[in-house]
Predict the structure.
Amino acid sequence: MERTAARRRSHVRRPAHPRRGCRRPRGASSRGRPGRHPHPPRGRDRQSGRRRRARGGDRRRHALGGSLGVRRVTAVVVAIPQPRADELAAELELEGVVVLSVVGTPVAVGAELLSGAGAIIVPASRAVLTADLIATCDRAGVRIIALGGADTRLLSRLGLSASLPPDAAGWQVAEALAADPEPTTEGPAARAPRRVIAVWGPQGAPGRSTVAIQLAVELSRRGRSVGLVDADTVAPSLALLLGLSDDAPGAAAACRRAERGVLDAAELTRLATRIGAGAGECEVLPGINRPSRWPELSDARLRAALMACRDWVDDTVVDVAGAFDADDELTYDLTGPRRHAATSAVLRDADLIVAVATADPLGISRFLRDHAELRRLTSPTPLVVVVNRVRHGPLGIDARGQVRRTLERFGGIDDVVFLPFDQRATDAALLHARPMSEVAPRSAFVAAVRGLAASLSPEGPTTTTAGSSRGSSPAFRRLRSALAARGGSPGADGPGSTS
């Protein structure tokens, strides 16, 4: 009897959906459909998961328009050399990016080609990234995507993001179009206004040209594009101090082209000579090789040239003569050229004037005598007074205090910048015909001008060796690279760093 009852209990059918605490029989489904195992084999589950994720990604991509970049930029202009231009256009079409046109020569890009475009793809080279192209893109609201290994400093000066590889695929360009552009301190929206900085000083060689050269170099090291112009019609010296040919066209040729209305940024770049010093470089327009050629730098010509320079570089540093003769019109013919019209034109059109005086009794006396006439001519243009060649010899103890008190008493000048006298660095710069920061980067004069450039720069402080007495000499750059490869830096936290 007991065996028969046990056999009957074994044939009792269990419910298909067990309650809490009961084990689901093998082969039963959680949804009440027997025959389907709740846990399929592991390999099949992985493959089906991949398919589901792929289908979901395709649905999201199609919902965005075929590519992540199309959500932000739907149409581009490809302006790179052939045959890569056609290949990149085809790859972008596969990514869902609409290619409006393919231009083999970026120079031919005009406002009509950019109509309806959200971005333009160009090579990252100085010949292509001109001021005209950038201005055209800014007016049209078109973003620039650069391809190639261009200098990052050049791209930051132009307000552009980092360039892509020269052989970047279509999906890489699409990702760059979808991403937000990297914020730059010098973009078209945040870029400081372009300025003309005049470096003036009374007669007697106070060091105008030396200060102008080093100031231009330090401004360029802070990320500004700088042009250095020699408008001295009495004793032009920039070409000799920098080892340039005095027969170069320079400022005189720029004034002649400006008078005819054909002077632009490209022509100024062709006429200028580029010099590099440490981490910065600037464009130089040498002056006239003989003072007798002063009529070539007339008032109207030079003002037109300075107007073109504002579209050429961020800062134009102009070295002028000491005599400006504001009352020339009383002694000269009104229709004829005036002897010192170049100096007067630069001082009137300048956005900032750096007035240089020598730290000795004769230099301070000459400066105070001409300072009142300078302010009458240029007011209310900002004026920065710089006292050069500060030393104890001509003035005795507390030379800076004596100069400061004299300028405040007789000229009402209470803000003065002092530049120390460094004879060894000056001689080295004259010997090698190079900027002082390149031959003597640890000079006290270089450090003082670096501080002056920091105070005059519209941007905030940068990390380009600013505040370091070692500057950016080649030997220190090699040492810094070697220590950085090992995991340390001589200017990071060590005793050699300065704040």
Summary: The chain has two domains: 72-178, 195-486. Residues 72-178 form a domain with the Rossmann fold fold (CATH 3.40.50.2300). The radius of gyration is 35 Å. The CA atoms of residues 384 and 448 lie 14 Å apart.
